Amino acid sequence: MKFTAIRENHLYQKAYHKGNRFVGQTVAVFVLRDRAAKRLMLAHPQKKYGNRIGLAVTKKLGGAVVRNRAKRVIRAGWQAVERTDGVRTGYLIVLSARPGIVGVKSWQVEQELRYALRRLDMLQGPAVSENTNA
RNA sequence: UAACCGAGCCGAACGGCCGCGCGGUAUCACGCCGAAAGGUAUUACCGUGAGGAAAGUCCGGGCUUCACAGGGCAGGAUAACUGAUAACGUCAGCCGGAGGCGACUCCCGGGAAAGUGCAACAGAGAUAUACCGCCUGUCCGCAAGGGCAGGUAAGGGUGGAAAGGCGAGGUAAGAGCUCACCCGCCCCCACGGUAACGUGGGGGCGCUGUAAACCCUAUCCGAAGCAACACCGUAUGCGGAUCGUUUGCCCGACACAUAUCCGCGGGUGGCAUGACGCUUGCGCGUCGGAGCCGUGUGGCGACACACGGCACAGAUAGAUGGUCGUUUAAGACAGAACCCGGCUUACAGACUCGGUUACAGA
RNA sequence: GGCCCGUUGGUCAAGCGGUUCAAGACGCUAGCCUCUCACGCUGGAAACAUGGGUUCGAUUCCCGUACGGGUCA
Prior knowledge:
alpha/beta; 5 strands
C-alpha cells in the first residue's frame, strides 16, 4: 500500500505538539488535520484524498536492522488496519515506535493500532459499528 | 577413540496467502504537477533485489576539483631481509627472539657505542659513589679501643638497574690488575646464503634502563573529499508561523487573496559494467575496466600469465517484509548509500580438508 | 555518508610518567556556634569509561572497544 511520507521535520513537531495522541506499548500515534490535504489531492492523479504518514524510530531502540524491522512491522500493521477497517483521510499521522516493538509480531501492532485509531475516532467502515455497540 | 592445531566454506531451505524497490513489455495518456529544467500515476506479466563482516572509519588506492618549474625547512607515517601488489602500516617467504611434548602460535623487531633529558621512594652511592666493613701509615692510650691521612668495590644492606660470571694467580687488603674457560658487544677474514643472517677462526672491548621521552638514520607523503564535482534551468520563486472560510460517513466543491515576521534555494547526472557503432525494438559487434566465475601453466607462497564463460542491488525518510505450515528447535552478529584492496571488532550453528599428541588394536 | 574532538567524586572541573597525588568549588554528611534555623568554623565520605601493550612504575604514552559530542549540503 502506497502512502505519502512525511519528511519535513516541522510537520513532525506540529504533530507532536498539536495532534491528538495515543500511546501504547508498541507504538505511539499522533494525528493532526492536514491543512495541505486539498492541495495534495489536486496533485494526485486520481484526485483522491490521502493521509500523510510518518514513521519515527529512535536510535535508542537498536541498530539499523532493529529499526528497519520496527518500521516494517508498523507498516504491515497499518496496511492491515487500513485494508480491513478503513481510515479517515486528510490527516497527518505520525507513528512512533516504542521500546515494546522489539521482537513482536505484526498482529500485535495491528491490534494496538486498531484500538488506538478507534480511540482517536479515525476509523470508518465495519469497525465503527462495533465501536458503537461496544 | 579422545584432546588439540591450522586452512577453507556456508551462514537457513521449501511451500501457501498478503505486500515493497529497480529494470523491461503492454495498458493508462497528447493526462497531471512545475516558471523551466524535469518529475509522475493505475493494472497485469516477466526479470531482478544486502553482508561475511555491508559495521568501526584504522590504513592504502581508484575517481573528482583545486594547487603545482626546481630545491630546502617544518609536519606526519613506517622500521630486520627478500619478494607480492595499483598501493599499503597489508600479504607471502625467510632471519632473529619468545612460548608449547608437538602440530603450531606470538613479537611497534633500526639506533642508547652521536648528543640532550628523565630514573620518584629506598639506598653510602644512579654514572658516579667510601655508610658499614677490610687494609696500610701515623697520633693518643697500660690495654680494650679511638682520632687523622690514604688505599680498596671481594662481602653487607637498598633498588627495576650497583659496572660481566667463575676459578687460579696476585696483594698490606683488594680489584680484568694478570691468565684460562664461559657470556656479551664491535671489527676483520674464510665458507654457506640474493639478503637479513648462520658456522668457524683472529683481534679489540666489558658499555645501566628509557627513543609507544626529545632525537638520529633510511624510505614514503600536495590538499580536500560524492555533502567532491559536472551539466541543464533560473521566476514579481519556495516553505513555515499568525489571523481564517468551506465540506464533513464517504465522494465531491470553494476560498487559498492581502498583510507582518522568520527561514530556504530547483533539477538531472555522478550511480550500478562504461563508451562507441548498427538496429523501430529485442539484440549484435568493437574497445575499455585492479569486475566476477572456472580451467590450465609458472612459483614453496603471496601472486602472475593464458584461455573460456558471465553481467550481478542501486534506494533518497531510504526497498528483501508480514503471516501460516514443514524441516528434531530456525535461534548468532547484523542492513549497501561513489567504488575497490586490507586491517580491526561482533558472531548461534553447520560442513570440508590437512596435521599433531596420547591411548587402544592390527 | 565524510571529517574532527572528548570521557577524572552526585555536578562543574585542574592536573602531571613517580614521593607530597589523585587539587579546587558546589552539593552530601558529622560536630561546633545559636533559644532555633540560616550564615560561618572544623572534620569526613565519595572518582581517573573499558581491555591490552610500552616502562622498574601509566590517570598521563601507544593500540583496540564502548559511550558522548561537534562540524560539513
